[in-house]
Design a protein that fits this description.
By secondary structure, the chain is of the alpha/beta class. 46% of the residues lie in helices and 18% in strands.
Length: 261
């Protein structure tokens, strides 16, 4: 048995569903997909020169960057949806990311006891700007006005440190805080809902083996054959092997001077 707060079958099912979220990332990158959001040729030129990269590195790094951006959303799915399998937790379709209820009471670090915790989850501590922080805080304030037997948590998967503290932020240029609106690292939230201080650590330890088991059984998952580099080479050959021009045409193909080149 992997863990005592989720069955092996549930864990494997959740990991398999998370891997499915990667399907779009596994699509091969041709030039059209590579330039879907329009490459910044000027940044490409600076990156290649300053970091002393080859054109192969530049293309591979950009493909990895684009895949990684989507993968962050997939990992958000993993962090949120796993709580659907954990006792007393609910993952609503809308409203809150997670709702944790315990009829026996949930004791906060302040000593206050509530019976419901409403959760907004973020992948990293620095992913919210001041506007989104203010909006989230106001949402939590409104929930407390409707229900004084609850607390609201901002749970961060990658927090600066292990913590369960009062969330102090700025709303409309004023510093605000409330003892039932808290900023909580993921390990502390796992501890709260499972009763095991090392629950998140134990999950991390079993992940590599569990994921490998799924990938070994799923022959449909394969390494994509990206063709963007070859297509760029073909364009470059039309301009005396100039990859610079190939990238300029990706971003500036309709601009004055570039059009019709």
């Amino acid at each position: 048995m992997y863990l005592n707060f989720i069955t092996d079958d549930e864990l494997i099912q959740h990991l398999a569903e998370t891997i499915k979220q990667y399907d779009n990332n596994l699509e091969p990158y041709d030039l059209k997909k590579f330039n879907e959001n329009i490459i910044d040729p000027i940044k490409i030129i600076f990156d290649k020169s300053v970091y002393r990269l080859s054109w192969i590195d530049i293309v591979n790094n950009e493909i990895f960057r684009q895949r990684d951006k989507s993968a962050n959303n997939d990992i958000g799915y993993f962090h949120q949806r796993i709580f659907a399998y954990i006792n007393n937790c609910e993952v609503p379709d809308e409203g809150w990311d997670i709702v944790f209820r315990d009829s026996g009471g949930i004791t906060l670090p302040t000593g206050d006891v509530v019976h419901t915790v409403y959760v907004e989850m973020k992948n990293k501590h620095n992913t919210m700007n001041s506007a989104s922080s203010g909006k989230t805080y106001i949402k939590m304030q409104n929930q407390l006005l409707q229900d004084d037997d609850c607390a609201c948590f901002l749970v961060e998967a990658i927090a600066k440190q292990s913590q369960n503290i009062t969330w102090m932020t700025t709303v409309d240029k004023s510093k605000v805080s409330h003892k039932k609106i808290r900023r909580v690292s993921l390990d502390k939230f796992y501890e709260l809902v499972t009763g095991d201080a090392e629950a998140f650590y134990k999950l991390c330890i079993v992940l590599p083996d569990a994921i490998d088991r799924i990938l070994q059984k799923n022959s449909a998952i394969s390494i994509p054959n990206d063709t963007a580099l070859l297509e760029l080479q073909e364009i470059a050959e039309e301009y005396n092997g100039s990859f610079e021009m190939a990238f300029f045409l990706l971003g500036f193909g309709t601009y004055n001077g570039f059009h019709g080149k």
